[in-house]
Amino acid sequence: METIRLILFVVLAFLLLQIWEAWNGDQQPQGVEVVSTTPLPVINPDLPNQPVGSSATDITDATQRFLEPAAPTKIPGKQVTISTDTLLVVMDSRGAVPHKVSLKNYPVSQDLPDQLTVMLDDVLDKRFFLQTGTVASAGQLRGPNHSTLFDIAAGDYSLQEGEDQLTLVAVAALENGLRLRKEWHFYRGSYQVQLVSTLSNDSSQPWQGAFYNQLVRTPGDGAERSFLTPASYEGAAYFTPESKYQKTDYEEIIEEPLALPTDSGWVAMLEHYFVAAVIPQDIKQFYTKALSEGRFAVGTVGPTLHLQPGEQVVDTATFYIGPKEQNRLNEVATGLELTTDFGLLTFLAEPLFWLLSFLHGLFGNWGWAIIGVTVSLKALFYPLSAVGYRSMARMKGVQPKMLALREAYAEDKTLLNQKMMELYRNEKINPLGGCLPILIQIPVFIALYWVLLESVELRQASFIFWLTDLSQSDPYYVLPIIMGISMVIQQRLNPAQMDPIQQKVMMAMPVVFTFFFLMFPAGLVLYWVVNNVLSILQQWSITRKYEAA
């Protein structure tokens, strides 16, 4: 019994150690070294683009060639600012694409409330940006792309009181007769942006090509944050009805670029707490590509268009640039909520998050919601916990008999084990019963760990007094120390270890766990403290009743 419980404690300690190492490792600057034996082609955006055919193979060839972003030295166009209640966007007339996107409701830190989190930023040291345009088939007129200069009316683009929508119009008319009109639609209370592109063929010859959208970024240069960033996935992801939600990190993009034919779904670039996603209305293929200067692209190519002289075609795409708020992502696109990755225990994490959100709606405070979740879980597992605590109480009561058996049969381990099992049967003790509370807590603990780490709703969420951000560690280490004290009290209620080595290990466990929890989010430590306190009360009550009987 003691050995099994010790093993479970060691397993939990090992899991905590792995989590802590992953957390600590992510505090260092991250980057991906791009190793390639074949130099990437540099495409001059002023030259005709490579062919886009009707087959998946032709499109794959095109996306591998033409989608190299414009050279960083390209002179930027005119810039205008669009301001809504959620977004602050700097639009560049070169390409008529966002040059910079900041999130108004998400400051970098509580100490810097005026410094907004930046999602997209087309500057040399960050390089996370969006590009849209057209790609022409071989021998066709060059279509407007992300390097083309557009005409944008100057002015103050600000969502006024009482308005629900704001529209910016940009037009590019090439000398070859192709004309592209982009309408960017911004909405109140939303991180969705809709792009309606109208391509007109005012030339005297037919045109063949396609629309494209792509996100390009440099690893590790995402939204600026001054707080410690816990272990979280950064990279590309996509969703189709057939393959469902899939992630493809930078190493996978280098080794095996994606070229996936599909007619629906979305692609995205993920980072901790935030996501930039492309949801086109008409799709023919998703793709990924490793670009020069350590950059990576994920994008979509639409179906091949055949535009006769005098004809025009309209393409619509939706972009989500903002936080991974579950209630928002559910409404944007199917499967987009999966970008909030709760790991292997998602089946436990999702109901925990639902319960946490529900209780937050009642209490209006995420700290009290965490306490409510802890109490609810404790009530749910009360019968199983009671079985374990009763077994531990019986074990504590028969310890004198166990000590006598150990002394009597110290030289015969086989006979000692037989006598121990006989004692368990006579006293109606389940040697594994005391392990149940620990077994129950381990998966719930890990699931809640990912809920608290991945849920942007808890970012910079305050509780009481000095706990102003439940997603960060306790600045004064009060909760971890209380947690360590509660572990000591729990050990006093448990049967004492008979083996001297086990006794020393168990004495060290509260110190080790306290050290781990110094680095954990305050919300997670709050859960563990409340859980320990409730466990102590339950165990003390059961032990007292057993001893009285």
What would you call the structural class? alpha+beta
The CATH top-level class label of the largest domain: Mainly Beta
Shape: elongated
Helix content: 25-40%
Assigned CATH architecture of the largest domain: Distorted Sandwich
Mean pLDDT value:
79
Q: Total strand count, please?
A: 20
Integer tally of domains: 2
Cα distance spanning the termini: 23 Å
Number of helices: 13
Tell me the major beta sheet.
9 strands, antiparallel
Rg (C-alpha, Å): 30 Å
* CATH fold label of the largest domain: Beta-galactosidase, Chain A, domain 5
What's the arrangement of strands in the largest beta sheet? 6-8-9-10-20-16-15-12-13
Strand content: 25-35%
Question: pLDDT below 50 for ≥5 consecutive residues: which ranges?
Answer: 1-8, 20-73, 221-230
Observed structural traits:
single chain, 549 residues, alpha+beta, Beta-galactosidase, Chain A, domain 5, nine-stranded antiparallel β-sheet, six-stranded antiparallel β-sheet, 13 helices, disordered N terminus
